What does this fold into?
Amino acid sequence: MQELKLATYNVNSVRARKELLLSWLEREAPDILCLQETKVLDVDFPFEELRKLGYECFTNGQKGYNGVAICTKLLSSKLITKTNFKTIDAQSRFIAINISDIWVLNCYFPHGDVRGSDKFNFKLSFYEEFMQFLEENFSPDLNLLLVGDMNVALEDIDVYDPSLFVDAVCTMPEERGALKKIIDWGLVDTFRTLNSSEPGYTWWEYGAAIWKNEGLRIDYILATDSIFKNFTKVWVDLWPRRRRSPKPSDHAPVIAKFTL
It folds into this structure.
């Protein structure tokens, strides 16, 4: 059996974070890398720099906003960048690829806003459509990973101070319910299952929050049972976040090890 390493990382601009990203990749060298918020058109993605590190990259980019990519050292096939669902395809937030008989779905879910706003409704519509997309195109019996920035802190343990986040963006019952519905389709929240008492925050506001560990867990690696049984470890890598230069993303990567 082969041990593989997968990482998901909201880089908050691959252009601004390129130096840090390349240093981190030389340090961790995941076999599969899923990026969110690349914020560049496909032609401006650093394909050549990542190719030198052994990665073939597939992108769904957008100028200045959103953008996702999957980079892999393994053989891949069956690229998907369009779902034929209006809300999902309205922005560059989704990409999927089959790697070594594993479907890897990488998604940057909308942040949302206060209840009743257009952004709030867009977020819930996105989740609803994504649930339908899963049901129509995949099965929980497959080896499938759904990863990315889901912009939902699922439980109170995923928030540094639950009293400050009562009915707030990323913790509203409608948002949590939407993510739970996707998990209930047949996925395992790998980090929380393997780390039941560790908060595992993945996002902190810029400033002192990272040093105070005042964060939220909003980035996930979700897996179907057939692949999760091969997971050995899932963790948040604070190295690229706890630094002042080069300026980090406001997110930290989540990394998983599993065998295939």
Notes: The chain has a mean pLDDT of 97.
